[in-house]
Amino acid sequence: MSGPGTRLVLWRHGRTGFNAQHRFQGRRDVPLDEIGLAQARAAAPHLAALGPAAIISSPLSRALGTAEALAGLTGLPVERDGRLVEVDVGDWAGLTPAEAGVARADGRAPWGEDDDFRFSPSGETNAEVSERVGRALREIAERHRGRTAVVVTHWVAIRAGVQALCGPGFRADEHSAPGNCSWTVLVSADGGWRVDLWGASAG
C-alpha cells in the first residue's frame, strides 16, 4: 500500500465526436475534436498546479492528446499503460445506447456498477475492467509513493478504478458522471484510499 501523501489524479480525456453523439467508443481510437482539444488546454494548468511527478496515459489517442496538453506545461514525459484503456464494448462500438438496445427511459446508464454486467456479448464485464485498472493504479501508486501521479484515462475505467481502490463503500453511481476533461483525486490514507475530489473541471 502506498504511503501518506500519495495522490492519484484520474483525468478523463477531452471530448470526441463520439462523445458529442453519445456513441459507445470502447477501444475504438477516436481522436479529440476541437472542443476536446480546447478542454485539455483549459484543464492542463489546473492539473499542473497539483505538482505532478508523472503522467501516465491510456494509449488511445483521445487520452494521449489530453495528456500532451499537460506534458507541454510540465515538461514531463507521457508514459503509456495499456491497462488504462477504456472498457471493451465489443459489438457496441460506434452505436448509441438506443441502437445497442440498452437505452433507459430516464437517461441513466443501464449498467451501473453490477460486476457481472457485460458490455455487449463480446465485451468486458465491470469486474474485468475493475481488476485490470485497479492493478495498474496500485502499481502506479507504488512507483510514485508520496507523490502525485496524473493518470489520463476514460469514464468507465475511472469508475472501475475508484471502486477497485476504495471498495464497495464508495458508490460511483451515487455521483454524477464526470464530464469530459474533468478529474478525480484519490489519496492514500489510513491503509486504504479515499476520494478527495470528484469530477472537478476547468469550467
Describe the structure.
Helix 2 packs across helix 3. Helices cover 33% and strands 17% of the residues. The chain is built from six helices and six strands, in the order βααβαβααβαββ. The model has no long low-confidence stretch (mean pLDDT 92). It has a single domain, classed as Rossmann fold (3-Layer(aba) Sandwich). It is α/β, with parallel strands linked by helices and 203 residues long.
Give the tags:
203 residues; alpha/beta; Rossmann fold; 6 helices; 17% strand; globular; PGM_Phosphatase; His_Pase_superF_clade-1
Q: What's the helix and strand layout?
A:
Elements: E1 7-12, H1 17-20, H2 34-48, E2 54-57, H3 61-74, E3 78-80, H4 97-100, H5 126-143, E4 148-153, H6 155-166, E5 183-189, E6 192-200
Parallel strand pairs: 1-4, 2-3, 2-4
Antiparallel strand pairs: 1-5, 5-6
CATH class division: Alpha Beta
N-C termini distance: 34 Å
What is the arithmetic mean of pLDDT?
92
Number of helices: 6
Class from secondary-structure proportions: alpha/beta
**Which stretches are low in confidence, meaning pLDDT under 50 for 5 or more residues running?**
none
**Could you name the CATH topology?**
Rossmann fold
CA-based shape? globular
What are the secondary-structure elements, in order, as H or E?
EHHEHEHHEHEE
Count of beta strands:
6
Looking across the biggest beta sheet, what order are the strands in? 3-2-4-1-5-6
Gyration radius, to the nearest Å?
A: 16 Å
Q: What share of the residues lie within helices?
A: 25-40%
Looking at this structure, what is the CATH superfamily?
Phosphoglycerate mutase-like
Query: How many structurally independent domains?
Result: 1
Strand content: 15-25%
InterPro entries: His_Pase_superF_clade-1, His_PPase_superfam, PGM_Phosphatase
Protein name: Histidine phosphatase superfamily (Branch 1)
Pfam families: His_Phos_1
Organism: Propionibacterium acidifaciens F0233
